[in-house]
Amino acid sequence: MSSVIASARFSLLDRSRIREGHIAAEALRDTVALAREAERLGYHRFWVSEHHGVPGVAGSAPTVLAAAVAGATRTIRVGTGGVMLPNHRPLVVAEQFGVLESLFPGRIDMGLGRSVGFTDGVRRALGRSKDDADDFAAQLAELLGWFRGDSPTRVHAYPADGLSVPPFVLAMGEGATVAARAGVPMVIGDLRDRERMQRGIDHYRAHFRPSPWASEPYVVVSGTVVVAATAEEAHRVLLPEAWSMAYSRTHGTFPPLPPAGRVETRTMSPKERGFYESGLSGHLAGTEEQVTEELETLLKETGAQEILVTTSTYDRATLLDSHRRLAQIVDRERNL
Question: Cα separation of 325 and 300, whole Å?
């Protein structure tokens, strides 16, 4: 079993993207259904995310959604990718994950990010500012302290006190330094800029300090992975998310995902077209043979122990087919 694919873990993150003509409740139910399928296909973990005030994303309460996912599954690890710690008091986050771990022992992951609201209006509604992200290291230390029961106050975070919930840091920018100093696994996703991503990984490994949470560095690379019967079909899967990202860059809001056919016929401004074309690059997309080769290269270059697939598209059936094809690649490599 010499293949790097065979020795790596593969997991899914679903952002509960809302599709044009559909409602948020459908997106949330789709996430739970996808988690069941991910478990059946043998994926290692299934994560959900946190977004506020975003028309195209239903996942605004990740710990609530994680509870629904964990309740609908039996064996797959469930977590967040991630809870945005600057938006919350660390005590409350510890209590929420303590409840999850108590209800679903040994299956909960605590993925944490340092982003604040996407717009000024959202940040005001949350009672936060951009500067709150600067306190992420201190917030993380306080959060982990609640689990160890070593808070300087006489307060205890029940039922988190004494529990062990694996923490992960979403290591964009300064996150790699924070993850390394805290001695926790890191999740990094910047497939469109491999050099920048590799610098972050190298920095994390070079400065990693062993801790009760991890004795050695653990790297999760996240990004879009699409497997289809043809390269052309895989490319079409990318269109809705690429357009949504381009629209957000030019209009300041993420819209629901349109069908690929509608994207192909849209008239875009030069600026929007530039963001759109950029959004189509840097992903792992193609046939099973092509994606197998690209995964081998990515894992060898980064030395990552895990791939977290974050693909979003309009057609849920096509998305599920891609996840099935990827699971088949992994199974084949493990059985060689």
Answer: 21
DSSP 8-state symbol, 183: T
Q: Name residue 211's amino acid.
A: S
pLDDT digits (tens, 9 = 90+) for 270-314: 999 999 999 999 999 999 999 999 999 999 999 999 999 999 999
Q: Rounded to an integer, what distance in angstroms lies between the CA atom of residue 149 and that of residue 157?
A: 8
Half-sphere exposure of 156 (CA within 13 A, CB side): 8
User: Do 112 and 169 form a contact (C-beta atoms < 8 A)?
Assistant: yes
Structure tokens at 319: 């998305």
In 3D space, the residue among 279, 282, 281 whose CA is nearest the CA of residue 247 turns out to be 279
> CB of 296 within 8 A of CB of 4?
yes
Q: Render the burial of 87-99: b for 16+ CB within 10 Å, e for the rest.
A: bbebbebbbbbbb
257-294 CB burial, b ≥16 within 10 A, e <16: bbbbeebeeeebeeebeebbeebbeebbbbbeebbbeb
Residue pair 15/81 in contact by the 8 Å Cβ criterion: no
Report field, pTM of the whole predicted structure over 0.90: yes
Residues 142, 93: Cα–Cα separation, whole Å: 11
DSSP 256: P
